[in-house]
Amino acid sequence: MVDLQHIVDDLAERASSATERGRVATYIPQLAQVSPKHFGIAIVTQSGEEIVAGDTNVPFSIQSISKVFALTLALDKDGDGLWRRVGREPSGDPFNSIVQLEYEKGVPRNPFINAGALAVADVILSGQSPAGAVAQTLGFLRHVSGDETLQVDQAVAKSELDHGFRNMAMANFMKAHKNLENRPEDTLWVYVQNCAIAMSCRQLARAGRYLAWDGRIGPGGAPVTSSQRARRINALMLTCGHYDGSGEFAFRVGVPGKSGVGGGILAIVPGHASIACWSPGLNEVGNSLLGTEALEELTRRAGWSVFASNP
Amino acid sequence: MVDLQHIVDDLAERASSATERGRVATYIPQLAQVSPKHFGIAIVTQSGEEIVAGDTNVPFSIQSISKVFALTLALDKDGDGLWRRVGREPSGDPFNSIVQLEYEKGVPRNPFINAGALAVADVILSGQSPAGAVAQTLGFLRHVSGDETLQVDQAVAKSELDHGFRNMAMANFMKAHKNLENRPEDTLWVYVQNCAIAMSCRQLARAGRYLAWDGRIGPGGAPVTSSQRARRINALMLTCGHYDGSGEFAFRVGVPGKSGVGGGILAIVPGHASIACWSPGLNEVGNSLLGTEALEELTRRAGWSVFASNP
Amino acid sequence: MVDLQHIVDDLAERASSATERGRVATYIPQLAQVSPKHFGIAIVTQSGEEIVAGDTNVPFSIQSISKVFALTLALDKDGDGLWRRVGREPSGDPFNSIVQLEYEKGVPRNPFINAGALAVADVILSGQSPAGAVAQTLGFLRHVSGDETLQVDQAVAKSELDHGFRNMAMANFMKAHKNLENRPEDTLWVYVQNCAIAMSCRQLARAGRYLAWDGRIGPGGAPVTSSQRARRINALMLTCGHYDGSGEFAFRVGVPGKSGVGGGILAIVPGHASIACWSPGLNEVGNSLLGTEALEELTRRAGWSVFASNP
Amino acid sequence: MVDLQHIVDDLAERASSATERGRVATYIPQLAQVSPKHFGIAIVTQSGEEIVAGDTNVPFSIQSISKVFALTLALDKDGDGLWRRVGREPSGDPFNSIVQLEYEKGVPRNPFINAGALAVADVILSGQSPAGAVAQTLGFLRHVSGDETLQVDQAVAKSELDHGFRNMAMANFMKAHKNLENRPEDTLWVYVQNCAIAMSCRQLARAGRYLAWDGRIGPGGAPVTSSQRARRINALMLTCGHYDGSGEFAFRVGVPGKSGVGGGILAIVPGHASIACWSPGLNEVGNSLLGTEALEELTRRAGWSVFASNP
Fold it and tell me: Which of A45, A80, A89 to mutate to test binding with chain B, by most B CBs within 10 Å of its CB?
């Protein structure tokens, strides 16, 4: 029997002494102020037990991890109509590339690059106010994490909007291709608010449970989405969840995951665990350096892999 | 209990009456002569049982499916040194694109696009003759399939070489970047011979067993490669195994797979099944049209998905 | 002695009966309302004579032709500092491509593609109000054309702003790369106002005189810019003045020229003539179809070419 | 009256003391052995006078300058049919890029990038032996330069062939797109032999006379090609003659020119001069560093520019 507590304690200890910690994202000034010293990991197991180590109660900006939850909402709202507006293929490009958008006439490659997430935000926004759209996403996250205290960090949101020229470029580019229904500035606002939601590792691991258990909040829990939809979101996380490092993550860690530039990673071991890991320093493709390493060691030692005969 | 025989009989029957069958590949003239009417599917289950329907004993050109086996050989020969010469990321490009090679200075994105497979062939070739390299690949396939009758279809090989200007361009381009050790024409010859190996669905499903059971030929069988390596090859199949349709295959079918322009697909359900499916007509990204549809229905009805809590 | 009047009469007559007239630009709705039946041509010769045929007094939207005049202004304001922000090479891309901007980190390839013209507008705008910047460009054009009646067509400007998402994307993208000093919406406003200036062929041919005579308004006329600068602007017109049709224009017409999506073309025969031609229908790369044909025949019959021993 | 001898003496003297001389091309090992100390310039004027300074009798490898002469031959052989196989637009890419070939389906952008010159060589080769094709090009150059001693430098040719994997890649890529009639290895051989022709500045300046005088070898001389064709070749030299530095050359030097990686540049001042300049060190886009500077100063001091009212 694997002793998960022992493993995560090892991981936290090793992380505390790591000298190479990656670089904290600077393009959102507010994020650049976060100390690279943080490290936390939280696991919710099949039995509902929570195994944690490190800074697991410190909220951080979930950033692109919010795209997983927004995608769930948009699919539940719009169904497969969403797929007319965004693809399902890895991009082979950085998260914020606009090149692909031009070659493919304004249709983002997948919902986890920034342009794709703008299309998802646009779906959520249609038919309601920007504030309503954000409240809906936040409400969804409060529901799946079982935590009514979750909030948008408005300092982060403002900082991102003030420096969000590149995302504004993408929103306008998609609007030019008629792939936004709403005003670019409104869609971008919703997107940025969602990204600025703050969560701790513990909260995030809880929020991911429905992906590990076929759409239900834990084994036999309340249904959040269909089992097919949960599986498909996992598939997208595996192929596209780490931008141009997605293949590497699948190769090394072996389970679906989604990273954010705040340094968080949500990893799903279907049937076994929902895991959240956080360390602010990023590697050269924009994913948490220590977080990725910790998850690689965790899955190796726990024997977790969707590619093994006995996952 | 799922009745697999019933499912595959359904699939074969439906395929026999399908009107939209895709288009048989034409860029290798010999392949263009294959009738699009064929359809076959073979499953090797955990118990070793073989469940088949359709043309499961007709040999077809495995083409790019050979890249999976060549990769296994090259990794066993060269270890992780291979990864200095080829990446592990989806390409976001067609199988035969040369654009990425220029942007990334002669390093192919992954071992399953043509350029990556040339690097793999080059590793196998180094230190032996071209004929020896092909004999080694063929010997490996005979071993894992338990079938000493496997052969290269020389008519296909000749046809491919006579029309292989694009692959010759890639080999020369990689040589210009010093990412081939051997002469481009020799490496290309090995690559083409490997692609021209002919196998039936039944033979191919047997050959894939080591990927479904952690590197062993069936549960508890003879070891072929390490369990970690088998998992990692599965990961690459999931993220890169269907060229620019890899995300779609993961989304719809939910298990690792590798396609070939001959119309074959090898699909792996770790711990449960090794599956080979064949129908020569291709969809617009170059993967078997009916084969993909059959695998989607099979995994759905069998409840197989690496993304489910109970795969 | 060449009879220019005879030639232009021929050109106008032929144009009046042409059946293939190209397609009027539709991405600015106001421009789409212009009749494709128009054709006009005006030549100002070395002696100051004006030779005209067709609709030479009908004002049209000069659109990108304004980039030539704005570049002159920006160079006179900022000197060679401008070249830190924009290149001098043909782009090999359509006028509104954003791909190159990403590959080259926000630095447009030349001042005649839209992104480059935004950088030029940004230089003019710095240190003054948007309205002041537009007044300066308009004042410059009134001066060089000797016509105080020139105006911005505000209906066109509004139409372009309402549908200018793509240019807004570029402005934001350049801002993200710190290659705009001012607010993207302000720079875009100046750019759009400049493009919406309305001129007739006669007015435009007069405005181009300083380029044909080394920076002076006609031979021995008032200096507008230095002779070196006038020559260099001609060089840029020749290599970059027709987007991805620049090589073709140089090959067929043989003199520097600048086109606009309103269907106008300004062509310069240094030492001999300033020519304006207008026909609203565009060819597939966005340049006036009949205008280009007329200029090709005119230069051939007049023996004008900067590449001939006796131009 | 400009004293050209005084100018070129100045240029040679300045070049002899220049410390920043660029980098000699290394991708053809034989070229890498040439001393960067060389500098030569030769001008043939309208009166037929030859004004020279520096190493004007030392033969160097003309490399891509041969593309101008090969183009003349191919157009005289095939007429405008050539333009179905190669475009007339600047590429916005380095001389040896293969990216554009893929995006534009095997049709090179212009005859002066390597791929375009392969198409030109293929036209010359069709209907005769490779040796015959080279003899024809050499015969043309002997004719226009009036020098029967011109030869291919076989040591350079062999060195280039031994390291020509990238050009071999392009030839195969074009063959895959059916844009080569002959075997890739044969077309490449002709191309390489043409590039390896050795000429001195004096010989090269003489060879360029037909471009400066409307297709005739000097004013009133023997016709080589039509005046229209000579002008159009000049147009292509101006827009495409310096790869991705063509716009810069037109901007700074102001006349048509063609460079080679051997460090030579042929510059044409229509009606005034044919100029050859040579210095082996290249700038970052692959054109002679000192050669470009010398030509810029020469045209400035001589008042030569195709963009001036009095060229």
Answer: A89
Note whether residue B310 is domain-resident.
no
- Are A196 and A152 in contact, with CB atoms under 8 Å apart? yes
C179/D contact by beta carbon, under 8 A: no
A230 & A292 share domain: yes
Task: List CB contacts (< 8 A) between A160 and chain C.
Answer: none
DSSP B264-299: EEEEEETTTEEEEEE-SEE-TTSSBHHHHHHHHHHH
Chain-centroid distance of CA A38 in Å reads: 18
pLDDT (tens digit per residue) in C72-114: 999 999 899 999 999 999 987 776 788 888 888 899 999 999 9
What pLDDT digit, counting tens, does each position of D59-89 carry?
999 999 999 999 999 999 989 999 999 999 9
Q: CA C59 → CA B271, C29, C198, C283, distances in Å?
A: 75, 17, 5, 21
Q: Which among C261, C274, C288, C306 is annotated as catalytic? A: C261
Q: Which of D169, D175, D184 sits opposite B173 (nearest CB)?
A: D169
Is residue D104 located within the same domain as residue D185?
A: yes
User: CB contact, 8 Å: D133 with chain C?
Assistant: no
Q: Which is catalytic among the residues A24, A67, A190, A259?
A: A67
- Does residue B70 have a pLDDT over 70? yes
A 266-285: CB under 8 A from B: 270-272
Compare CB distances from A172 to C97, C99, C168 and report the shortest one's residue.
C168
Q: Is C230 on the interface with D (CB under 8 A)?
A: yes
A311 CB within 8 Å of a chain B CB: yes
pLDDT of residue A1: 66
Identify which of B88, B234, B245 has the shortest CB distance to residue A307: B234
Contact D18, D283 (CB under 8 A): no
Q: Is the pLDDT of residue B311 over 70?
A: no
In this structure, the answer to whether residues C17 and C103 fall within a common structural domain is no
The pLDDT of residue C1: 66
Q: What is the mean pLDDT of chain A?
A: 95
Give the distance from CA B75 to its chain's centroid.
16
Cβ–Cβ contact C184 with A under 8 A = yes
Supply the CATH number for residue A185's domain: 3.40.710.10
Helix or strand or coil: residue A42?
strand
Task: Give chain A's domain count.
Answer: 2
DSSP letter assigned to residue A216: B
Residues A244-285 have pLDDT tens digits of 899 999 999 999 999 999 999 999 999 999 999 999 999 999
| Mean pLDDT value across chain B | 95
What is the value of ipTM here, to two decimals? 0.96
Question: What SS3 state is found at C250?
Answer: helix
Chain A nearest C-alpha distance from B307 (Å): 5
Per-residue pLDDT band at A157 (split at 50, 70, 90): very high
Angle at which helix B114-125 crosses helix B130-145, to 10 degrees, equals 100
Q: Which residues of B touch D171 (CB under 8 A)?
A: 169
Percent of chain A at pLDDT exceeding 90 = 90
Residue ranges making up the domain that contains B252: 4-61+199-302
- Residue B41 tokens read as 């599917």
The answer to whether residue A309 sits within a structural domain is no
